[in-house]
Design a protein that fits this description.
This is Isocitrate lyase. The protein is of the alpha/beta class. 47% of the residues lie in helices and 10% in strands. It has an 8-stranded parallel sheet.
């Protein structure tokens, strides 16, 4: 998407030329062309500029999805600005556009990788300031990617290539980020204050969950405690007020329910009349019928249907929900959130099963027809095992031969080339398209991919580097792959801004500038290397 709201080179050039006339000789050393180029290379001045721009993108994408469910969106979780930058550079290289591709900021990864306390579990123990700090860092790196790529285009333009149209229609690396505010890090005022910081850093979409802030657990762990709807609505309101106050009118709120896997509540809401939200919430609380005589001193009791009930309470004071009410609670959570300011839903599920997700979403759509989900394609799921089990059950129901498969050992590598495996892998491949079509999923994300890829790549590199392969492990497994695949940071000095800095120093100091990009810069060894296309051609010739 072209950044239509941003000033183009020509308009900036005219502005600077007028400023030079206004301020006279004191500006004589300022080159208008250089200044216009620098402005063009930094299209977003503040995080709020980014939040407003990307919110517009998300709203358009949501409308596109409502008209055609094949137009879903995707993202990958990033725990560092460099990771996000390289992701978006790769998106532009491989797919030619950033359209429908977002970023995700995972609270889990902030806790595990960005806290000053050191690695922490996903329990809202990390500093709340770490979240907006990471958002700002990510957008700093994406703006740098814009500046570096545009700087290269301007250099080529100066060398005679006709690239002005490409510069004027440049597609930014800046894309929407869906940012995790956990359970709000405190009461609704705390949620509002943190939301403001996240929006000011650039976030156009905030995801909040209905767990108790001080008892928050990862959505894929046990021990989750949810809050009554009134408490959650207050936090939805707090986020909306933050968006409005900062002028991000199209800001997006993602309401997450953890009720599918949560069996506890900390608080019993006050019902004002039968059938209200508090009453519906209380109806899910597990309780046993007693007589007044059986009631203990200082015990909490409820009246329901003319009967006296004792809520089931644990030693820690938490109350239990009735077994089997989790799906009904999910549906009520979703409907209530959408009717009270949320734009998108997030339902945590135990497995990635299209039919199970659709069964919940379709119930929500009976009340809110345009309900849409953000869905966590979580690394906490064993995708291989889950889909092999699904296919096993489908094959058994269809009367296909399953005798040579051990249902309890479907992860065994001996099945990797089997019919069952291929069918399961195809279901994994089409999961996003299938669930977007059948289960209302607008946005697919993987929360922790770069956490796992970093661990995997370090495992592979260290195995060889500290073993018999030595330096060949790095050259063969990393650098040669970067060269062959055209990975931008193979020239890491350029990617860190060295060439960009040389040009800036020339703007500032002219011929006196001390530049890094001379003949003795070892990065020159990577100039004129084969592109991925050329490399593939050479391989095919050898073959």
């Amino acid at each position: 998407m072209k950044n239509l709201a941003q000033p183009n080179y020509s308009s900036v050039l005219e502005t600077v030329q007028n400023l030079k006339k206004k301020f006279g000789n004191s500006w004589q050393s300022i080159n208008a062309e250089s200044a216009a180029r620098m402005v063009s290379q930094n299209q977003f001045r503040t995080g709020l500029d980014i939040a407003k721009y990307t919110a517009g993108i998300m709203r358009k994408d949501m409308s596109d999805y409502d008209a055609d469910s094949s137009k879903y969106t995707q993202s990958l979780g990033c725990w560092h600005g460099f990771v996000a930058q390289q992701k978006m550079i790769a998106v532009k290289k491989h797919h030619k556009t950033t359209n429908k591709r977002y970023l995700y900021l995972s609270g889990w990864m902030v806790a595990a990788l960005r806290s000053e306390f050191g690695p922490l579990p996903d329990q809202s123990m990390h500093e709340k300031t770490a979240v907006p700090a990471l958002i700002a860092e990510i957008y700093d790196f994406l703006r740098q990617a814009d500046a570096i790529e545009l700087n290269d285009l301007f250099r080529r333009l100066e060398n005679g290539e006709d690239l002005q149209a490409e510069i004027d229609n440049y597609e930014s690396h800046i894309v929407p980020i869906i940012a995790d505010i956990d359970a709000g890090f405190g009461n609704e005022e705390a949620t509002y204050l943190l939301a403001k910081k996240m929006i000011q850093a650039g976030a156009c979409a905030l995801q909040i969950e209905n767990q108790v802030s001080d008892a928050k657990q990862c959505g894929h762990q046990d021990g989750k405690v949810t809050v009554p709807h009134e408490d959650f609505i207050a936090k939805l309101n707090a986020i909306r007020y933050a968006f409005i106050e900062l002028g991000v009118e199209e800001g997006v709120i993602v309401a997450r329910t953890d009720s599918e896997g949560a069996g506890l509540t900390q608080k019993l809401p006050v019902s004002q009349k039968p059938g209200d939200l508090a009453s519906q919430y209380l109806a899910f609380v597990d309780a046993e019928e007693i007589t007044l005589k059986e009631a203990k001193e200082d015990e909490v009791l409820m009246k329901r249907g003319g009967k006296l009930l004792r809520p089931i309470r644990l030693a820690n004071g938490l109350y239990k929900f009735k077994e089997g009410t989790n799906i009904d609670r999910v549906v009520l959570d979703c409907i209530t959130s959408l009717q009270n300011g949320a734009d998108l839903l997030w339902i945590e599920t135990p497995t990635p099963n299209v039919a199970q997700i659709a069964s919940m979403v379709n119930r929500v759509k009976e009340m809110v027809p345009d309900a849409k989900l953000v869905y966590n394609n979580s690394p906490s799921f064993n995708w291989t095992l889950n889909f092999r089990k699904q296919v096993y059950e489908e094959m058994a129901a269809s009367g296909l031969d399953i005798l040579h498969y051990d249902k309890e050992n479907l992860m065994d590598a001996k099945y990797d080339g089997s019919y069952l495996c291929k069918r399961a892998d195809e279901k994994i491949r089409t999961f996003q398209a299938d669930s977007s079509r059948e289960a209302g999923i607008f946005h697919h994300l993987i929360t922790l991919p770069t956490y796992h890829t970093t661990a995997l790549h370090m495992n592979d590199l260290t195995e060889g580097y500290f073993g018999e392969e030595g330096m060949l492990a790095y050259v063969k497994g990393v650098q040669r792959q970067e060269i062959r695949k055209g990975v931008s940071c193979v020239k890491h000095q350029r990617m860190a801004g060295s060439d960009l800095g040389d040009d800036h120093k020339t703007f500032f100091a002219g011929d006196k500038a001390l530049k890094a990009g001379g003949t003795k810069n070892t990065s020159n060894q990577f100039d004129n290397i084969n592109t991925n296309k050329k490399a593939k051609l050479e391989v095919s010739k050898v073959a």
